[in-house]
Structures
1.
Amino acid sequence: MSSEPIYSHFFGVMGASAAMIFSALGAAYGTAKSGVGIAAMSVMRPDLVMKCIIPVVMAGIIAIYGLVVAVLIAGKLGSNSDRQYSLFGGLVHLGAGLAVGLSGLAAGLAIGIVGDAGVRGTAQQPRLFVGMILVLIFAEVLGLYGLIVAIYLYTKASNA
């Protein structure tokens, strides 16, 4: 019989879910908002469509961050009776999932807004492209920070 409460798995599952749900929401918003900008820009400058697809790619990477953490957490959620899953581990995994998920949501929102305005501006003034890329990198790194914190938390739960 395990000394850990039966509901400790719930927090781990919620962490994996939060990682995937929130990061996918951010990626979807970033993709949609940037896609609208690309569609509007392509009417005037169809030659720039492939060059301006970068915000969509960067938004998609945000979902990968959430997927990585969700798979790591799910790998620790064993159904075997001999595997212990502590309440501490569940709560730390919840924190890890929320860290990557919510930072991915924020990054996706930023990428969408910058991508939309950036590709429209690039259509009118091509020199704005480099500035758009720099701001997109700063937006993307917000999601990367969440991934780093989530992996750090994940290792803390694994060592405990």
Note: The first helix runs from residue 8 to 44.
2.
Amino acid sequence: MNLSERIGILRRGFGRGVFPHQLTWVLDLPGRQFIMSAETVAGRLPVKPDAQVLEIGPGSGYYSVEVAKRIPQGRLTLLDIQPAMLEKTADKLRAAGISNFETQPADGGALPFEDASFDAIFMVTVFGEIEAREAFLAEAARVLKPDGVLSITEHHPDPDFEPAEAIGACLQAYGFVPLQKLGWRWAYTLNAAKDGEKAA
């Protein structure tokens, strides 16, 4: 890898857009738990032990391990556009002794799953990276079960951070109803359900 390529990776890592898999070590730096711990995110997912959960953009798997532990009779599906990122997440899950997961390389605008497949979809510091939001939210509504939940967590210092009010308005515009906001202004989780009237 030459210097120009290294600089490009650093710019993507600390700028807006998809986080490069070459910098996953940054996502595991000490101190992240004080901003948004894995236990906090997992605890905000309203799921039962047998739930089918989809994580969009798992990064290094920082949150994946804790969520998988909370659905021992269920399954965690990890989706990312970077196969190398999924490999790193899978390695972390296996190292933690977790086997109730699968990986799926794909784009969020065309989810390769059947209708009503998941009890919950969650993502952490990923929603701001999605450009084709209408397509993604339509797909999310399709693959969620009727009572499923879309859970979006955002926190600083992510360069793609957006306030809860902006994301809530976007969700409402594309067929979701915000249910609850947990956390505070700069580090929060927004849970939403499908709008039955718009989906009908």
Note: The CA atoms of residues 127 and 152 lie 7 Å apart.
3.
Amino acid sequence: MSHAFYVYSSYGFAAIIVIAITGWTWIDGRLRQRELATLEASGIHRRSVHKTEGDTK
């Protein structure tokens, strides 16, 4: 094995891992957004949405 093969394969492997983690995060974010939309459509709302300016809690 040459040095160049080792370097290029290492960079390729790292790129695949970064792309996989980025894709996984993006897909999971989309699924969580859908889940929140479903919950809000069923009447369950986030507490942070209903806070008023006078609330201290």
Note: The first helix runs from residue 3 to 41.
